[in-house]
Amino acid sequence: MKPKFTSEFFAGNRERLRQLFTGTAPIVVTANGLLQRGGDSSYPFQQDATFWYLTGIEDPDIVLVIDKAKEYLIVPSRGTTRIAFDGSVDAAELTRISGVQTVVDDKEGWHLLEARLRRAKHVATLSPPPAYIEEHGLYTNPARAQLVNRIKMSDDSIELLDLSQHVALLRVVKQPEELVAIQAAIDITIDTLKDITRPSELAKYAYEYEVEADLSRGFRRRGASGHSFEPIVAGGARACTLHNVANDGPLSSDELLLLDVGAEVSHYAADITRTVSLGTPSRRQQAVYNAVLEVQEFAFTLMQPGALIRDNEQKIEQFMGEKLRELGLIKNIEHDEVRRYYPHATSHFLGLNVHDIGDYSRPLEPGVVLTVEPGIYIADEGIGIRIEDDVLITPNGHQILTARLPRHLG
Predict the structure, then answer these.
(1) CB 208: neighbour CB atoms within 10 A?
(2) Does residue 85 carry a pLDDT above 90?
(3) Among 62, 120, 112, which residue's Cα sits nearest to residue 91?
(4) Is the dihedral of CA 33, 35, 39, 43 positive or negative?
(5) Which pLDDT tens digit goes with each residue over 176-221?
(6) Residue 12, class by beta-carbon neighbours within 10 Å (0-12 exposed, 13-18 middle, 19+ buried)?
(7) pTM of the predicted model, to two decimals?
(8) Coil, strand, or helix at residue 308?
(9) Who contacts 355 (Cβ-Cβ below 8 Å, separation ≥6)?
(10) If you ran DSSP here, which 8-state letter would residue 164 be given?
């Protein structure tokens, strides 16, 4: 089924945000901005997920204002050179997509907003991230910080209210349209992986980048916009680097191949990992694979309404410890020992972002979509194995959205 997002979907999200945010302060949310790639060229534009969730708009730099029953879009003006290269922004089209009836230019829009800010003590927005996230080695899009600076220029004394928790509550439970989009992304990923992992196909690949190329082709020809994240195609010991995205290593028939990939459809992500043998798996490779599969089967039993992700993680860590001990990798089931071979969490939320927002301290509830992805990584043996599936929490338990894709090593 092809996902369809109408202006009613986005208008409904804005209304739900109004109801959840009970204050009287104006809500101001910005689109992302373009990021320089080099010279006068930019990286491919990626819209801020929450701005898209509230408007459906793909253009950069636009600002949404929600002020009680009143709402409008502020659209920056473009010079003739920018219009010649990037085109102009069609106000009527913005209204058709978003359902926001009032679209104003930068000068008029900020005049309206600044007049309102002078009468308000607070403004609700999304707090900007740090300019650089050291843990991940990432520079962040500066659009939210720029918005805050512009607001503070209007009134330095105004207090900012962070909408992050409100937005997380809205986005974590998926609506029917969102589930259709996620399933479409999953189905495209499954069909592409089925093609690529046929023994006759695997035998033709000499390098990881050849697999990546066929993934990209398979996603696009089946209707996806592309990858929902940088694909991980890692043979042998390279699979022990969790986010190995170079995808340029040679492949060998005595190694395993880890594929952590996902298509993107209408901004929604799939996230699936399969580990396959490029030849006949050794007894050790099969034993480690079976251990990961058993951990995943155990983890599935914990995915139900009312469960806490952090409690699930502790139970899975203990079960993983038993499997690692059986494999002779550890003697005692202790946190640091287990995490030497299993250094990541089992689950994360999935949706508009592959690592979607959500409150990990809240119990799971129907409509939540998350991953289940245990793994074991033994660098000195050149074995890295992860199995990842996408799961929907239902009123009575869970549904494995990726169940069509087999889980076997070879």
Answers:
(1) 25
(2) no
(3) 62
(4) negative
(5) 999 999 999 999 999 999 999 999 999 999 999 999 999 999 999 9
(6) middle
(7) 0.96
(8) coil
(9) 348, 349
(10) H
Is the CB of residue 377 less than 8 Å from the CB of residue 327?
no
* Whether residue 277 has pLDDT greater than 80: yes
Structure tokens at 387: 């199995």
Q: Could you count the other beta carbons within 10 Å of the beta carbon of residue 90?
A: 13
For residue 200, which phi and psi values (nearest 5 degrees)? -65, -30
Across the range 338-367, mean pLDDT stands at: 97
Q: What tokens were used for 151?
A: 């607001």
Contact 355, 255 (CB under 8 A): no
Q: For the range 33-38, what are the long-range contacts, defined as Cβ-Cβ under 8 Å and sequence gap of 24 or more?
A: 33/60, 33/61, 33/141, 33/142, 33/143, 33/146, 34/60, 34/61, 35/141
Specify the DSSP element, H or E, that contains 263: strand 263-265
Look up residue 302 and give its amino acid.
Answer: L
Average pLDDT over residues 365-379: 98
Query: Residue 53: which of 147, 162, 135, 170 has the closest Cα?
Result: 170
- Give tens-digit pLDDT for 109-154: 999 999 999 999 999 999 999 999 999 899 999 999 999 999 999 8
Q: Which pLDDT belongs to residue 87?
A: 83
Task: Give the DSSP letter of residue 228.
Answer: S
Q: In whole angstroms, what is the distance from residue 182 CA to residue 179 CA?
A: 5
Contact 352, 226 (CB under 8 A): no
Q: Which residue has the tokens 């694909």?
A: 231
The pLDDT of residue 50 is: 98
SS3 state at 212 = helix
* Cβ 18 vs Cβ 167: under 8 Å: no
Domains and CATH numbers, the chain: 7-170 (3.40.350.10), 173-400 (3.90.230.10)
Task: With beta carbons less than 8 A apart as the criterion, state whether 144 and 128 touch.
Answer: yes
